[in-house]
Structures are given as structure tokens and as C-alpha cells.
Design goal:
The protein has 194 residues and is an all-beta fold. Helix content is 0%, strand content 27%. The strands form 6 sheets. The chain has a 4-stranded antiparallel beta sheet, with no helix packed on it. Strands 1-6 form a two-stranded antiparallel ribbon. Strand 9 and strand 10 form a beta hairpin.
Length: 194
């Protein structure tokens, strides 16, 4: 699907305020002079020409599917304006350079999802599983053989909110924790290299 530059149509005027009829709207990959496809409809089914020639009202339909740069030129080929790094509306979140911060993918017939909640002073934000199902796990996965890292170098620990065990891939207990009120001792494992 695509994002409209400005609903319902893109429109430009001449310096005297009249319609920019016949002006040329060039579309490029953001931050470059590499031409990029744009579309006349939301479903990205009808391709625009590049450049797009504005109609007698100085209008055209422009739907984009990626970060885009627009360059409007008058009838003599003089640049009237440039607008760069226009972002397509997607569920994805980008940084100020147009690079992914968070990329979302979909599952067919999805009924479960994540909720994110902010927090007041003294509490931390929450990422939680939600949806139609009753017991919904959350999976945190690395790419390929990358590690899953919890906490940070300065964190004071990784806290279990209950006495949950660590399970293997068949849900069998590998390690079970239980707490003692006012505990003062713990198990410390030291790695020794020979």
C-alpha cells in the first residue's frame, strides 16, 4: 500500500498565485537523484509518469511507498521547490535519517498483539502480550546465532516477578527458583579458566 503526499491531491501554484499548469514534478529516492516510482492510487496499482505533468489546475495524485524526494520544475525547467525525505506512512518507525528503528510484520489472521504502557515516576514502562487468547507468551529472538541479552552493564540485576522456573524447549524445568523471606545468602557461580 502507498501513502498520499497530501490528500486528496498534490497541488502547486505559480509565483503569481495561478495554477502551476503543465509544471513537472520529478520524484526521486530520498536524498538522491535516483528516480523512484510513485502511484495514482492507494493500492499502488496505477503508476505515475516521472516526471508527472501537473494538470490545468496544477494538480496530480501522488502516492509513495518509500522515502521520497520531490522536485517541482516550471515550464522552462527551473526548479520551483524541492521537498526531501517525505516518508511513506507505514506502521514502521524510522529515525531522522529514514532508517528503520522498528519494523513491523504481520501474521495471517492475527488475534494477539503487544501493548506498551508508559509509567509515572518510580515505575518502569511495560511491554505486555495481549489479545483474544488467554495465555499468550512473548518471544524475544535474536537473528541467526546472535545472543539474547537482558539488562545492561549498569543494571542491578534481572528480576523475576514470581518464582518462575527456567524451561527447556519442551517446557520441562531446567532450573527452579524459590524465595525465602529476608534472604541474606545466594548462590554465586565463578568461572575458572585453566
Amino acid at each position: 500500500m502507498a501513502t498520499n503526499i497530501t490528500p486528496p491531491v498534490f497541488q502547486a501554484t505559480n509565483t503569481n498565485g495561478t495554477a502551476a499548469a503543465g509544471f513537472f514534478l520529478y520524484t526521486y529516492v530520498a536524498g538522491s537523484d535516483t528516480p523512484i516510482a510513485t502511484y495514482q492510487d492507494y493500492l499502488a496499482g496505477s503508476l505515475n509518469t516521472n516526471p508527472i505533468v501537473l494538470d490545468i489546475y496544477g494538480m496530480c495524485k501522488v502516492w509513495i511507498t518509500a522515502a521520497t524526494k520531490l522536485v517541482l520544475k516550471d515550464l522552462d525547467g527551473v526548479i520551483v521547490f524541492t521537498a526531501d525525505n517525505l516518508q511513506a506512512q507505514t506502521a514502521d518507525i524510522f529515525d531522522s535519517n529514514g532508517k528503520y528503528l522498528i519494523k513491523f510484520t504481520t501474521a495471517a489472521n492475527a488475534v494477539n498483539y503487544l501493548t506498551m504502557m508508559n509509567a509515572a515516576t518510580g515505575s518502569g514502562p511495560v511491554i505486555a502480550a495481549d489479545g483474544i487468547d488467554v495465555n499468550i507468551p512473548i518471544t524475544i529472538a535474536s537473528k541467526a546465532t546472535g545472543k539474547v541479552i537482558l539488562g545492561s552493564a549498569t543494571s542491578s540485576g534481572v528480576q523475576l516477578l514470581g518464582n518462575q522456573p527456567l524451561l527447556d524447549d519442551a517446557s520441562n524445568e531446567l532450573l527452579k527458583f524459590s524465595k525465602t523471606a529476608s534472604a541474606i545468602n545466594e548462590i554465586t557461580k565463578q568461572v575458572v579458566c585453566f
